[in-house]
Amino acid sequence: MPLDWGLINSTNLTSINLDMLLQDVEQFDCVTFSGKITQLEQDETHWTAEQRECLRFVNSVLQMMLRAEQAAEPFGPMFVMGEQRAAIPADFPKDALRSLESWVMSLIDPELRARFLDVLWVQARSFPAARASVEAYLSSALRLEHPDDWPLCQERLERALRLSAGLGKGGAELRLQVLNAIDAMLQRHRGTDPLYLSLRLIQLLLEFKHGDAKQFADYALVAAADAEEKQDFWRAKDYFQLAAECYRKVGQTVGENDALRYSAESLVKEAELAYKQPGRGAMAGAAILSDAIEAMRQVPGGRERAAELHERLLILQQESVTDLKPISTSYDSTELVQHACAAVRDKPIYEAILALCTMAKPPSVDKLKQEVYKQARNSPLGSLFSSEVMNSRGRVIARAPGLDDNADDPTHEGLRWRMYRQAHLGRSLTVQAMLNPARAEILAAHAPDRHDLASLIQYSPWIPPGHAESVLRALVAGFHGDMLVAGHMVPPQLEAMVRHVVESKGGTTSMLEPGGVQPERSLGVLLETPEALQAFGADGVFELQDLLIDPLGSNLRNEMAHGLLDDSGLFGEDVFFAWWLLLRYCVMTSKLVERDLGQ
Predict the structure, then answer these.
(1) Model confidence over 55-105: pLDDT tens digits?
(2) Contact criterion met (CB below 8 Å) for 518 and 510
(3) What is the structure's pLDDT at 402?
(4) Shortest CA distance to 428 belongs to which of 580, 561, 326?
(5) d(CA 478, CA 424)
(6) Whether pLDDT at 8 is above 90
(7) d(CA 234, CA 276)
(8) DSSP codes of every residue in 133-184
(9) Cβ atoms of residues 242 and 211 within 8 Å
(10) Taking every annotated instance into account, which residue ranges of this chain make up the domain DUF7380 (predicted)?
(11) pTM, two decimal places
């Protein structure tokens, strides 16, 4: 229900005494604050109608998810369910926010003040609010500093830094203040924290060219040694790579090469650890060792060690064949959700994403036909009549005729439309009960960023030259539930991928018309080429036709290209499935190349 802005003003907000309401919380962050406000809202007899509406506004602001790495859009909705989502800054009228600036400035708690001031800056562009928000973020970060529960502190430092950097010359002094605070925090921990606080702090300092990179390398090596001692080899690998980056900044080639070698050896140790662990075994070990071999090949002088590791990889790959087990799909939706989450839970990020990519596959064209005719037998009248097909704006864009008893070719529109409907039902179940729960599990555990995904897709021959950054941004947005961005980026990247794959296999992607004009062939034509069939298979081509271009199907490519899909439509199952499909194609083709390189 929309907020009633006639009831929300500084006087009414002051009357609820927000600082006093939240003084007894156990942890001083917005999520905890929101939980407290939700609890207080339930006592309706305690509040006037105006105060209840103010509490609703406060909770809407507190529930937004901070995305500190995204300077332009730092807040996302806490949840997205179908066409519903939680609040974002754009939901609040600018003038209404500006009228609350004096109340926001009066807040005592730095976490509260930072959040409301930042929203005021993002939506209403109040420069005083931005400056005050940076200082409040710093105070909140110092209060939340903890070596184990590090993300809360680090996110606020990063947001303060990116916000001050975005203020131009007017924020230069603030930016230096934040960088000095980050450096001071790093000096307190010096790589002795048990997780990733030092790593994130060093990465921020390197990005903004502040501090002593040689000293940072020493801290990274301290953290890497601690991680190896605790058999946390993924963390060790990350810290060794960070040390290599620090050495590179100061031109110490020997130190850089040694750190890269240690990083690759950490993956070797993780592979052997995975091999011995129940539930991971030879298959996980082989996948990790393949990454280790590729990393070792990039190290100067590492070819001999890579060849040695390759012998071990062949043994693990042979053993992994016995690990393959059929996956049953005879679950109700609850069981499917549990199964999907369990498939990615407690796994390193790369294994979890690989499990997500292999969680589904294109529906069989033959099975779709069988389902259509099974339904026709059960409901014979329904199959006799034609149906109108509408786009997202309710306009009739096609008519599907009745089902011909003799129709067996999917080019028959009556059969194809009904097959698409069956495929859509399966897609919806797959997204809601498997793919989206697994994505949420991975997001909560790892919050995949550009660097994580770049290492997973870097060898994919299906990514067109010059498109890697666009693909990465689309994939990161999807992982973080930002389907407004992913929905706009995924269909054109899938089309570019099809065009590139067809061309790389020798197919023709353009026409030659009189006068030397060479227009590009449409996506529909490209998907009908032998090269597309060879690359994607009959089931995969049918799925792409349904998902992207056929008016009888989801038709996402054309809905997006013509601006017909509204904001709510971008959070639908078809857009999510298209995002997952792009992720699957990029990751799986990259892994195939890595495997071939290992052989």
Answers:
(1) 999 999 999 999 999 998 999 988 776 667 889 999 999 999 999 999 999
(2) yes
(3) 72
(4) 580
(5) 20
(6) yes
(7) 16
(8) HHHHHHHHHHHH--SSS-HHHHHHHHHHHHHHHTTGGGGHHHHHHHHHHHHH
(9) no
(10) 6-173
(11) 0.63
